[in-house]
Design a protein that fits this description.
The complex is a heterodimer. By secondary structure, chain A is of the alpha/beta class. Chain A has a domain of about 70 residues: Alpha-Beta Plaits (2-Layer Sandwich), CATH 3.30.70.260. Chain A contains 11 helices and 14 strands. In chain A, strand 1 and strand 2 form a beta hairpin. The longest helix of chain A is centred in the middle third of the chain and has 15 residues. Chain B contains 12 helices and no strands. Chain B is about 80% helix and about 0% strand. In chain B, about 35% of the residues are buried. The chains are: A alpha/beta, B mainly alpha. At the A-B interface, helix 2 and helix 3 of A face helix 1 and helix 6 of B.
Chain lengths: ~300, ~250
Amino acid sequence: MIEVQHLTKRFVGRTAVDDVSFEVGKGEVVGFLGPNGAGKSTTMRMLTGYLPATMGTARVAGHDVFSDSIRARREIGYMPESVPLYDEMRVVEYLNFRAALKGLRGRAVKENVGRVMDLTGLKDVQRKIVASLSKGYRQRLGLADALVHRPRLLILDEPTNGLDPNQIRQVRSLIAQLSTEHTILISTHILTEVEMVCRRVIIIHRGKIRADDTPENLARSSRSAGMLTVEMKAPAEEGSEALQGLAGIRRATAVPSAANGGWQQFEVKLDTGADPREEIAELTRGRGWPLRELRANQATLEDVFVEITQRD
Amino acid sequence: MRTFFILLTKELRSFFLSPVAWVVLAMFMAICGLSFSWSINILREKPQDQSIVQWTFVPVWFWLYYPFLFPLITMRLFAEEQKLGTLESLLTAPVRTWQVMLAKYFSAVIFYVVLWLPVLAYFGILTWILRGKVEIPQGALMGSYLILLITGLFHLALGSLASALTKNQIIAAILGFAFILLHFLIGVFVMQQAQDHQEFRPIMDYVAIKGHIESFASGLLDTRPMVYYTSGTLFILMLTHQVLEYRRWKS
């Protein structure tokens, strides 16, 4: 659905997107992540044909977004970050206008506008002036606009930006619902959202792609994966040495902490694929060290994101 | 073409939903009504060299409101879209930049034409009241409307260019007014020079807007100003298109 080859965008004095290449297959839901100013919005704007590239090519549904821009744009439903809308129009008027602009005619306009208003919960406010809508409804209207012409590809730039937790949950479930019919490229800062919705993640930083994998694989590759936390009543030095003596443990470090009744926490780095939790339990029983925590650390997408974006 | 008409309809609706448009319309009707009634009073007092058409369209006070009209009509065209970011959602739909530009420009042209229609009605009412006792020079009336239309097309293009150059409507209005004033003053300068220097006369025939309106209002139709304003309008519209593309590319 999306083929991007060596895409580069230079502005005066800075390179916003630097030789980016990736592909998104039909039906995929891809999270496009990166810190502010990483190049996410610029890449998305190039994919929608709004910005020309300095170098490289991008195709959507087989159409070059630069040389065959109008056809490519017919396949795209785009929701920009700031959700710009015409404040003086009514909700239904705005959607009718956008549907007609995107090539729908006659009954198809009415049907599709009705469909997206049902889908996004805008029916109750359809006669309201856009200027009077709350942030949540504006966001929904932006999403309805992106969906109205049944595009094959949805490009959503921070669709939950500025929403309260309930509204975020609603938008998230809507996106999950849409993922059955559309290919989706979604940019967001809320990483739990990505873990829930996306089956693939692309992390971009300083204009370059730094990671491209499933959220699970990325979490496994994190530095904080393959770690155990052990808390037992044992002297720091003796405990570390004893743990390090077990098979499968690369390193055990006592975590410096204030006196708390003799309890000591240890960070244990494991060899790849090792799981010595049983042996640790045996050890504490044998030495008479009471054990109150033995936990395998699960790396999150947030850990991976922080590692990648703070590496340099 | 269908896309153009969808955009044009939306633009016209936006125009007539805007309070500025109604204020401009009301003020313009008031000014034109006063101007027309003064013209009748002047002609009632004693015979004049100039016809009622000339008194209506080229009195001194005409230049006090005419240059202000265009920035008021065009200031929001692109500046507002750029400020709100709606130009991005417009141009990521399957729409070309020139379609957006022409739809906006022609909505301004239609509004401008609507502004002048009541004056035409005043002449119609006067003709009906006089019932053939006094003849209103039809050629001069047509000439006046023709020159108002072609200079209007040119000035609306200048205003559109000013609006494309900035995100701020006030700056767009000031810039548009400055462009129109500059063009007017160049015309005045050339007219003054032409009195003493014959070589300025051919230039004056092209660029002196004051002279154009005066000659058309007296019923003299000259093709040179028509060529000048039409080609100028096309050039400025092309420039506006390029400005919009440039601003999009660097956004």
